[in-house]
Amino acid sequence: MEVKDKVVVVTGGAHGIGAALCRRFKQEGARGVVVADLDMENARQVASKIGGLAIQTDVSAEADIIRLVDETEKLYGPIDLFCSNAGVAFRDEADGMATSCPNDKWQKAWEINVMAHVYAARAVLPSMIARKDGYLLNTVSAAGLLHQIGAASYSTTKHAAIGFAEALAITHGDDGIKVSVICPQAVATQMIGDFSDGGPQGIDGILTPDEVADSVIAGLAEETFLILPHEKVRLYMERKNSDYDRWLNGMRRFRRSFLE
Fold this sequence. Notes:
The protein is of the alpha/beta class. It has one domain: NAD(P)-binding Rossmann-like Domain (Rossmann fold). The protein is 50% helix and 13% strand. The protein is built from eight helices and seven strands. The protein has a seven-stranded parallel β-sheet with strand order 3-2-1-4-5-6-7, sandwiched between helices. β2 (32-37), α2 (40-50) and β3 form a beta-alpha-beta unit. The relative contact order is 0.13.
């Protein structure tokens, strides 16, 4: 897909990767860019700089996603590319157990990291299928393909997000629907928190949101399912798939290195 002359929606568009995507889509000549976020102040700032539209949206509420799609289509017409980008990350609690994150955080991670993708697809697919044309771009994480040490709720929900994106691609590829997932490791956003070096996920360096946006444009042009801003993730996936037990042992050693 080329973004030129397309109508694009980006959730989580007020900050980080989402804001970088909005800027880059405008540079690529998108006809309309909608910046969707709970943070309306920053969403308006991003939108004003690119001549886009800011819409306050809670992606965990399906009614908000439906309203977002309706308002976008009233102004710009059919949505060509929906970027379900918003996400949250919670670390395991102090005891370090994989079960330690409290239930309310598990629920929030599920609602935003998984169900928001479901709501978005449910809202845009009927129109896209009728046109035999449309693109769903979901921001996931390398954690969805591998693992995020110290963040069980994050890793688990990101794995689920990959599974849903695969379902979209398999079920609706023959309907003319394209699907891609963005799976970076560490990116210089609020998500990495107080890890100045990116923590475990920063082992291969920290990318800027603009660098991730560059990878997205290249991935969209190739219409590839996996967009890997950190290319080394592909090698790690191959190692995991070739010998799961060896990979798990290696990840245990990697985890211990951060506990010492």
